Every structure is written in structure tokens, then in C-alpha cells.
Amino acid sequence: MEMWQSLTHGFSIALQPLNLLYAFTGCVVGTITGILPGIGPLGAMAILLSFTLYMDAAGAMVFFAGIYYGAMYGGSTTAILLNIPGENASVITCIDGYKMAQKGRGGAALTVSAVGSFVAGTISILGLMAATTFLGSAALKFGPPEFVAIGVCGLVLLIKLSEGSFLKSTIMIFLGLAIYSVGVDYLTGTLRFTLGIERLSQGIDFLPVALGLFGISEVLETAYISTQTGKARKVKFREMLPQVEEWRRSVPAMFRGSVIGFLIGLIPGPAPMISTFASYIMEKKISKHPEEFGQGAIEGVAGPESANNAAVGGAYVPLMALGIPFTPAMAMVLAALLLHNITPGPNLIQEKPDLFWGVIASMYIANFMLLVLNLPMVNLFVNILRTPKQILLPVIVMFSLVGVYSVNSSLLDLLIMALCGVIGFVFKRSGLQPAPLIIAMVIGPMLENSLRQSLLISAGNIGSVILRPICVALYLIAVCILVAPWLIKRISKLYNK
After folding, report:
1. Which of 109, 74, 103, 72 is nearest to 89 (CA)?
2. Which of 73, 84, 125, 15 is nearest to 372 (CA)?
3. Residues 267, 278: Cα–Cα separation, whole Å
């Protein structure tokens, strides 16, 4: 009962005019960035991260939640009408969504996508409330040694579940930890890894690196690749209503996709994209008409679109409950909180209940806004694709430059952003994913600080840092994650012999 009373209090905060404005703006920005191929929620968050300094912490969280949810829906609009996935998570939607549009059922596909996203968002928010409340109640059991174990376990999970090879992911993580460590050692006050360059004593901030790797590199990638956008047919409002049979087939798929998406959102990696694949495969396997998949099956839209939206709520659980971002977008949300001197974790619900419950309530409102906003204005949003790259890309670069410079008024930050933009472009061309690097930069400070605090408390006794019940459990999980695939492979070979 206390949870629902807290949620009611959260709505009183979320319904304040300024927070409603942040939610609405985030939804619009998210939908636009989801529609525009290549930018996505991560690029939008990176570009607008510095502007959250002019908001309070709750406003920043509401704004970013709107962007994330909006991008998940916006990507489906062009996937259905133009066969162009505005967001990676919408690739699967192209398969059946575009086929439905060709058959004149594009409006129904858009409505099912919007309702599925709303249902999934609601279910994932309920899951987020339950999970974070449970973990928050165990806050007193978490000390510095437990946070060290959480950090190690998070990095191991990230290595195993990130896109690309094990070696490439490991290289990216160690590179991220190395970049974080440049500057002044907070404990001893000595310089480290500055290479004699005085300006590097201020350290390398997260913002210019993230903006370069995800914002500027996307601009370079978009400028490099010539994208052809087809002509979308106008969708009349009366065509948006699905038939009774379409509702009957899509509603169960929405609920299945919501559960799958939320659970996959709890693990590191590109959760929205993985969840859409998992949902699509399940729907095809349990369908009585699997031959319709790929030809315009409504379940092929409802399931994946619900899954990618539910994965957003799932991704918030490790961030809000443990203070660890498992996706690059969550790393941006964490950065926004750190800019306001707020560190999420098990104590967040007790220390900042207004922030936590206000954000939860705002997620409900943002999901409802997207449902009301996107369906009537679908044709307007699709027209955004007609914006010439010669206008769009310089505007994005301008916002990036202003945003980075406004934080520290540092020319070094601008140089780092430009350099990271080029490096990020090279990474993408070489098949290296920069996401583990960014997440490692965020986890690094927590991991180092917690390890030092643990060693100081225990007078250097490493046993007391490792041999605590929660720590042992987490380290065993990390070892199993590393060893299990190799062990299964060996057993499989012996069995086949």
C-alpha cells in the first residue's frame, strides 16, 4: 500500500507544469530522433546532456525518459511506412509492418504499434516499481565491497553480452577505464596519465567523449552514407483503427512482448534490439499461421514493438536500484544525474523519494502523451525526413559545440569531442562498438572509489572485501558467465565423440 501512496505523491510532482513541459518536449524530440535514421535516442541524449544543467534533476530524468520512449516509437513509424528503421530496434518491425502498409493496413499497424508501446511501457514501469522497491529495501546490506562486486559483475556481463567479439569488447572496456583515469588522483592529489600536458590535469570528462563517439560520429556516418528515403503514402485517420481480428491476434502478442522485453532489459547490451528478435521468434513459433510472418502478420508488429518499449523500463532497474548503467543510453541518464550531484543506487529511494517517484509517474504520463501525440500527427512526423542533410547535420553539430562548451567553457573539451567524433567514425567503419567504452567510463569511478574505501576500511585485507555473502554470490555469477560457455562447448565436444 505504501508503494501506491508513494506513486500518488509522484504524480503530484509529475503533473507540475514544468515537468509536463519536459515530458512533452522529450517525447517530441525522441519521436523526431527515432524517425531520423542514424541519430537515435543515444545521439539525442548526448547532444542535449549539457542542457539538462538548466533543469532540476527530476526534470532532466523526465526529459530523457521522454526521449528514450519517444525514439522507440518514432523508429517504428518510418519502418512501417517507408521500410526504413529509424532506430536499430525497429529493424524487425520493417519485415511485417511494411508489408501491411503495402496492403493498405499501414494505419492499423501504426495503431497496434502505439498501443503495444503504451501497454509495454505500463507493464515495464510496474516491474520497475516492484524491482527497485525490493532492492531499495535491501539498501543497508550494500557497502563498498558489494559495490566493487557489482561493478566487476557488470563489466563481465558487458564483455560477454555486448555486440562484437569478446576481445573487441574487452579492449573497449579497458580503453574506457584508461580514459577515465586521466587527471588528478582524488585520494593522493597526484597527476596520472597526463603525458606532461598540463590541461589534461582537469581530466577527460564523460560529456565530450560521449558526444563525440555517439553524436559527431553519427553526423559523419550520415554524411558518408547516402540514404534514399522513399515516398510515404498519406495515412488517413479513419484507416488507423484495426479490425476486430487484428486486435484479437495482437493483444496477446503485446503482453508476451512486454514480459520478454522487460526481462531482457535487465541484462547488459543492446536490450531493445535483442528483445525485438526474441519476441519475433517466439511469436512465429507459437503462431497457428507461421507462413504469414514476413507477409504482413500483425503479431510481427505488436510483439516486437511492445518488447522494445518494455526493454526501456527494464534498463532503468539496474540504474535506479544499483547505480550501474547496462546500456549507453542509461549511461547518459546516469551522467545527467551526476551533473546534479546525485548518485543513483540502493539508497536512492530513501534519500530522494521525490525524484524517484516523480520520475516513475512521469514515465506513465510520457507513455500516454506518446499515444495521444503520435497517431494524429504521424504524417507530420514523416515529413521531417524531407529535411535536407545539408541543413540538419550542421544544426546538430552546432548544438553539440554549444552544449559541450557551455559546461566548462573549455576549448580542450571541444578538441576532445572532435577527436572522439573521428575515432567513433573509424570504430564504426572497423566494426568496433564504442558502447562498452562509454559504460566503462561511468562504472570506473564507482569501481575504483568503492575498492579504495573497502581496502581502507579493512586495513588492506582483501579477504574481507571478497568473502562477504553478497560479494561471493556476485563473483560466482561473474565466473560462471565467463566459464560456462567454454565448459558447455567442451562437454558438447566430448558428448559428440
Report:
1. 72
2. 73
3. 14
What distance lies between CA 315 and its chain's CA centroid? 7
pLDDT at residue 393 tops 80: no
CA 136 to each of CA 131, 309, 438: distance values in angstroms, whole numbers, following the listed order? 8, 24, 26
For 231-246, give one letter per residue: b (16+ CB within 10 A) or e: ebbebeeebbebeeeb
DSSP of 253-277: HHHHHHHHHHHHHTSSS-HHHHHHH
Phi, psi of 85 (to 5 degrees): -75, 110
The answer to whether residues 143 and 404 touch, using CB atoms and an 8 Å cutoff, is no
| CB of 219 closer than 8 Å to CB of 47 | no
CA 443 distance to own-chain centroid: 15
Kindly report the backbone phi and psi dihedral angles of residue 191, in degrees, each rounded to the nearest multiple of 5, phi listed first.
-80, 145
**358 vs 268, 323, 403, 466, CA distance in Å?**
25, 18, 26, 36
Sign, Cα dihedral of 187, 193, 197, 199: negative
> Does pLDDT of 1 surpass 50?
no
What's the whole-model pTM score? Answer: 0.71
Asked if residues 232 and 110 have their Cβ atoms less than 8 Å apart, the reply is no
Backbone angles phi, psi at 384, to 5 degrees: -60, -30
Nearest CA to 273 out of 72, 39, 433, 42 is that of 72
Sorted by where each begins, the domain ranges of the chain are 2-143+214-408
What's the sign of the alpha-carbon dihedral 373, 378, 382, 383?
Answer: negative
Q: What nine digits make up the cell of 381?
A: 512526423
What DSSP character marks residue 215? Answer: I
Q: How far apart are CA 185 and CA 183, in angstroms?
A: 7
Distance CA 113, CA 97 (A): 9
pLDDT tens-digit map of 436-473? 787 788 778 878 888 888 888 887 778 777 888 888 88
Q: Note whether 84 and 229 are within 8 A (CB).
A: yes
